[in-house]
Amino acid sequence: MSVYFPQKKLPYLLVLPQLIITAIFFLWPAGQAFKQAFYREDAFGLSQTFIGFGNFIDLFQDPLYYKSMGVTMVFSFSVAFFGIAIALWLAVMADRVIRGKMVYQTLLVWPYAVAPALAGVLWWILFDPNIGPIALFLDRIGIHWNHFLNGDQAMILVVIAATWKQISYNFLFFLAGLQAIPRSLIEAAAIDGASPFKRFWDIVFPLLSPTTFFLLVVNLVYAFFDTFGVIDTTTQGGPDGSTNTLVYKVFKDGFIGLDSGGSAAQSIVLMAIVGLMTVVQFRFIERKVQY
Amino acid sequence: MIENRPWLKLFSHFILIAGVLIVALPVWVALVGSTQSASSFADSVPLWFGDQGVQNWSHVLFHAAGSTLQIPVWHLLLNSMIMALGITFGKIAISMISAYAIVFFRFPFRSLIFWVIFITLMLPVEVRIVPTYQVIANLNMLNSYSGLILPMIASATATFLFRQCFMSMPGELVEAARIDGAGPIRFFFDILLPMSRTNIAAMFVIMFIYGWNQYLWPLIITTDDTYYTLVMSIKNMLSVPDGDIEWNNVMVTTLLAMIPPVAVVVGMQKLFVKGLVDAEK
Fold first, then answer.
1. What is the DSSP string of A96-113?
2. pTM for this one?
3. pLDDT digit string (tens) for B115-134?
4. Structural domains in chain A?
5. Phi and psi (nearest 5°) for B26?
6. CATH class for the domain made up of B75-279
7. B-contacting residues of A 154-183, CB under 8 Å?
């Protein structure tokens, strides 16, 4: 673009609504978070004392915070790994199919539209320790299932619910990635006698690596921030903090624990993490453009 | 096909069908459960249809959602619709005009403004939930549609998409418009808007799903059930004091909360895929 409209005031008018919304609902609260992170509020919310980095020091000396970090890591990487692996498998299968590809796509993408909170409810029903069909089946084969008491099982449940929702997204991107691979490459390998299995690992998978890496980042961001609903409707961070992810902890400490300083300090740390992930994402996209 | 391997083909179909069935399993259970009486859940979740379907659905839709939630679901559906459409149109409107300003005009602080908008992309509301809540409380916007909608339309994804889309348009368009004496407003409505129809539609699909599925935000800023949205109300139905959840009603409500966004994705699949791919570029 090299031709512009000459008006001087109009552009400001045009960006104004977006800027006002950003200022009121983003910059102001972010500023508040910064301020609160350096204060300690008494139990009744009546007075605030400036304590410098006190909240951050408390945070990084709190074993519960490290536990929550560990939980977040396990949760996010499990969701990303299973989401990517299952979606890739289904996409490779769908790419082989000539007839019915669109039907399979339709039948696999709809969970994207389901709210995370509802995904949690749907899987809770299946795994309910007293009446859930899967839980009852597991009981029968000797695995006692109760995600309200068993921390590992609680984690498995939220991973399943969160992964279920994300498969659709990964599937679409893998299918697009597979369709972009030149047929001639596959044909050449087939003529050389490479089996479908070998062709996948030696040609298709490496060629998909940009897509896979991109999806890894997106899935981690999803698992970090968009799975609040899954956890809130099923385990609420429990039992004993075993599904208390960093994002859930911000909410819990702020609204239920009423520790505004500690919660704000956690918000700041999370903002830094999001910033870092965004930078990684954009660095990667820049690189992809150069390919 | 490179070579004909009927067994592999069969295997592919088998895996895909298995995938489809597993993905659909929870919805199947919810669907059949929604047709059962409350007492059918005493021992285990039923896996086939009951005879209470019409009764349950009409009760939940027109009478009361059940448990502690004594408000009919059509009202919650309406609230969700208002919130989702408000967020969608709000986002599209404000980001289109700001992208328009950024691409088609040159003015001081242009890139600063762009970066300020960009920062909002980084921070999901979950991360800054407590201070945002306090701001809304200060503005007296708790329990209101504006409180549900306005904070959610501050996001940069749509601005990016429209910026990208506008930048790909040929500069001669502006030149031609100027020679013909069309001002920027006329250009926007008569040329730019019709040309970005597909992008707007794709954005609409993505943003509608985003808006409809909001959970945490409505959960904390609404205490008056006339402003409850459908997705968040599920929490009320699950947190019953004595743990006696009315599963049949929960399932009806869950399905009702899923239907609109799922219908949008399935019905506008092409636009949905386009929106998804564009938004992540």
1. H--TTHHHHHHHHHGGGG
2. 0.89
3. 888 777 667 777 777 788 88
4. 75-244 (1.10.3720.10)
5. -60, -35
6. mainly alpha
7. 164, 167, 169, 172-173, 176, 183
